[in-house]
């Protein structure tokens, strides 16, 4: 019986010039909703263009705003103009603290002198925070936290220093911002770092690593009278470091964040509230921070807090794999959780501006938000934006704002990149250990504004040259992979033939760095056999543009392998079985001599994928005899791609293709396989200390034909269905075994989601194996050639 039900799902065929979009990323670009030119009703973000800002020669650990001034604290000795290098003639001395005009990025005259006393030690007692002044000699002088008084007149500095303006100031100092004078009445003796500060009209609250203040026991939390500088009896306790503090809007309680497991002997991890007067623990209903696992040495740390009205926003870092690393929002009075996201990658700072929550981190997996996942080599996105209001959803929406900063110089201890944020609802300042912003030199500080303040001027990212394939003597198919823009999701693409000045086609598409559509156009009506080149110009909504390199010159022709076969053959498969045989036991290799061997349960000359001509395929019968194998054993490849078309309406699942050590029956070693589970989803897996898999979000048992490509190589695994990338996995290796490529079935024991049958029942067409990992553009080009 011929596979008539596959033919009923025939796609529309091309008659005239046509363009289409194939999504070559994981999912659609939908979760990223806003940018500098957002759709109506969605939030606008700042531009991703760093504004001219003075730089530091070291790390900025903390930022705070007072009116039109932003104050930076950290471990640096000088500042210099934008675009200059260390040692520039305009460089100015600053001892760990500097102030700047928030709107221009230029320095003010405010320049406290913060320092530490050199000491000898066998090893650095505070890794990453105490400078080595010489072999075995260190000096702790960092400013780790900067906070302003509610009236903006007084600046409070906390850290690891021991003097200010030549006077003893153990870990805490205060300055009059207008005069630059050191506040004399706040001069406590604190025995270890101050990492957190919160200031009310009457009180200065501090948190950190200390256990003693002015000779009195204070276990990581303490408070001072602002007017007199006297130590107050307020003395809640934390069993581990306090990193951040914030006051409720009414000042009645203090929200405390850190790495603790208990506050006042109450078991609560990472975040808690205490009464601002008595220090008593207050109710906190949710537990967004997971408990510490001492045996595995895993824990999560709340590093930054922002209070807005009745909501507190928090950013956290996880120590250990898959520990909470993202952000959450909670009711500031009750602790009721509003939303929580889990982008993995150490959130070090957050800032709220115009309804957008900006964050500093080294995010490498935001799949929890339907965005980018883990890849190999790991990609870090150190600046992010998301909706502050989730509108009742369990998670916020990640917004389209992707400026980049690097992790810092190679000798940096943390290599985090950004560490601090501050804003005035117009200018967003970012400080850290980075030395570049958007790839350009910029150390320690940068800032971002909305387009109403400065225009959006960054162009989209560079593009690859288009791929061109013959579709006949007078027709060429042009495919190109979309690029992305740091602050605009929707881009316009104009296609030019032979270097012309007038585009032959224009199309718009959404994209981001993990979802790059493959766009296509069929150029019909050309002179028979004529050769042509193509370029693509991409433009953002503000006219910023970039042009791709030119494609190779390609002439219209008719391939003896057909339109799809010609596109596949151009990518170098071995073997490539078109499966057009009408009889016999051997599948011919269209590009060489690696023939396949049909089992007795294979039916030949069945209806194939409609756009893959000649329209013939095989049908497997769902038994151990319905398989197609390579004729002789060989070593399993380490880098490879598997490409084929399939269709089925049977609910039993089964293995479509895999590498096994037996030519027939069930293999005892089996790997590099694609199978359909009982839900009809495709699973691509390899064995590396257990099964490492990608599972398609969609189901494929409806009877239609589908194009599948699975790759593994130096960047990990990827699975494409119908031209779109549906999943990745960073695993780069699989079992080193000797065996056979098999189509139609094999052992699936011990693999996740084992289907009802190991043996696939359905149609298979045009199978190709490659010694390379195909690119998204190659996959999209092949699918285009076989789909219309």
UniProtKB/TrEMBL annotation:
Which stretches make up the Fibronectin type-III domain? 459-561
Q: Which UniProt keywords apply?
A: Carbohydrate metabolism, Disulfide bond, Glycosidase, Hydrolase, Polysaccharide degradation, Signal
UniProt xrefs under InterPro entries: ConA-like_dom_sf, Delta_60_rpt, FN3_dom, FN3_sf, Ig-like_fold, LamG-like, Quinoprotein_ADH-like_sf
The protein's matches in Pfam families, at most eight in alphabetical order, are given as: DUF5122, Laminin_G_3
Taxonomically, which superkingdom? Answer: Bacteria
**Residues making up the signal peptide according to the UniProt record:** 1-34
According to UniProt, the name of this protein is Fibronectin type-III domain-containing protein
Native organism: Fodinicola feengrottensis
């Amino acid at each position: 019986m011929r596979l008539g039900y596959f033919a009923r799902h025939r796609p529309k065929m091309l008659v005239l010039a046509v363009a289409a979009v194939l999504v070559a990323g994981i999912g659609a670009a939908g979760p990223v909703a806003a940018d500098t030119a957002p759709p109506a009703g969605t939030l606008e973000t700042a531009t991703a263009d760093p504004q001219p800002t003075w730089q530091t020669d070291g790390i900025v650990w903390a930022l705070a705003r007072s009116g039109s001034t932003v104050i930076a604290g950290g471990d640096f000795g000088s500042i210099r103009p934008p675009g200059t290098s260390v040692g520039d003639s305009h460089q100015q001395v600053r001892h760990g603290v500097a102030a700047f005009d928030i709107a221009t990025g230029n320095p003010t005259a405010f320049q406290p002198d913060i320092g530490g006393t050199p000491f000898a030690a066998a090893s650095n007692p505070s890794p990453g925070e105490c400078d080595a002044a010489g072999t075995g000699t260190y000096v702790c002088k960092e400013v780790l936290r900067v906070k302003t008084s509610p009236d903006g007149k007084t600046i409070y500095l906390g850290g690891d220093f021991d003097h200010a303006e030549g006077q003893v100031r153990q870990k805490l100092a205060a300055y009059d911002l207008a005069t630059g004078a050191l506040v004399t009445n706040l001069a406590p003796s604190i025995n270890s770092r101050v990492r957190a500060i919160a200031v009310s009209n009457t009180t200065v609250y501090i948190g950190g690593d200390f256990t003693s203040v002015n000779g009195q026991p204070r276990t990581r939390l303490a408070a001072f009278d602002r007017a007199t500088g006297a130590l107050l009896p307020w003395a809640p306790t934390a069993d581990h470091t306090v990193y951040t503090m914030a006051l409720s809007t009414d000042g009645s309680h203090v929200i405390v964040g850190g790495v603790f497991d208990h506050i006042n002997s109450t078991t609560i991890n990472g975040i808690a509230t205490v009464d601002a007067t008595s220090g008593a623990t207050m109710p906190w209903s949710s537990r967004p921070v997971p408990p510490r696992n001492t045996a595995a040495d895993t824990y999560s740390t709340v590093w930054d807090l922002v209070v807005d009205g009745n909501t507190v926003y928090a950013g956290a870092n996880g120590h250990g794999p898959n520990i909470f690393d993202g952000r959450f929002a909670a009711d500031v009075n009750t602790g009721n959780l509003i939303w929580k996201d889990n982008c993995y990658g150490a959130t070090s700072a957050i800032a709220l501006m115009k309804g957008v929550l900006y964050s500093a981190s080294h995010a490498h997996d935001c799949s929890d938000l339907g965005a980018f996942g883990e890849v190999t080599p790991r990609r870090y996105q150190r600046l992010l934006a998301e909706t502050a209001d989730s509108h009742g959803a369990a998670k916020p929406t990640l917004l389209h704002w992707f400026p980049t900063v690097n992790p810092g110089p190679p000798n940096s201890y943390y290599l985090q990149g950004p560490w601090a944020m501050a804003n005035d609802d117009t200018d967003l300042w970012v400080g850290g250990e980075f030395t570049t912003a958007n790839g350009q030199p910029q150390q320690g500080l940068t800032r971002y504004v909305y387009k109403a303040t400065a225009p959006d001027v960054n162009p989209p990212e560079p593009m690859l040259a288009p791929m061109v394939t013959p579709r006949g003597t007078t027709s060429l198919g042009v495919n190109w992979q979309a690029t992305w823009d740091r602050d605009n999701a929707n881009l316009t693409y104009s296609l030019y033939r032979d270097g012309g000045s007038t585009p032959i086609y224009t199309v718009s598409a959404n994209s981001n760095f993990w979802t790059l559509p493959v766009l296509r156009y069929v150029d019909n009506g050309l002179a028979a056999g004529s050769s042509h080149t193509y370029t693509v110009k991409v433009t953002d909504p503000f006219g910023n543009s970039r042009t791709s390199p030119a494609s190779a010159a390609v002439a219209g022709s008719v391939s003896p392998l057909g339109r799809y076969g010609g596109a596949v053959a151009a990518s170098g498969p071995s073997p490539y079985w078109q499966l057009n045989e009408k009889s016999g036991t051997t599948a011919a290799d269209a590009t060489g001599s690696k023939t396949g061997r049909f089992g007795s349960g294979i039916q030949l000359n069945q209806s194939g994928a409609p756009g893959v001509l000649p329209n013939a395929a095989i049908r497997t019968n769902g038994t151990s005899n319905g398989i197609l194998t390579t004729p002789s054993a060989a070593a399993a490849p380490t880098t490879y791609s598997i490409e084929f078309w399939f269709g089925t309406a049977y609910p039993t699942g089964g293995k479509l293709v895999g590498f096994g050590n037996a030519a027939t029956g069930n293999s005892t070693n089996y790997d590099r396989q694609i199978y359909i589970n009982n839900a009809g989803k495709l699973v691509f897996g390899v064995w590396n200390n257990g099964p490492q898999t990608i599972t398609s979000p969609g189901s494929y048992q409806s009877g239609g034909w589908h194009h599948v490509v699975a790759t593994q190589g130096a960047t990990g695994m990827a699975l494409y269905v119908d031209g779109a990338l549906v999943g990745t996995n960073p695993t780069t290796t699989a079992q080193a075994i000797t065996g056979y490529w098999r189509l139609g079935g094999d052992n699936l024991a011990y693999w996740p989601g084992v289907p009802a049958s190991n043996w696939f029942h359905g149609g298979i067409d045009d199978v190709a194996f490659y010694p390379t990992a195909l690119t998204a553009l190659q996959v999209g080009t092949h699918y285009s050639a076989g789909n219309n």
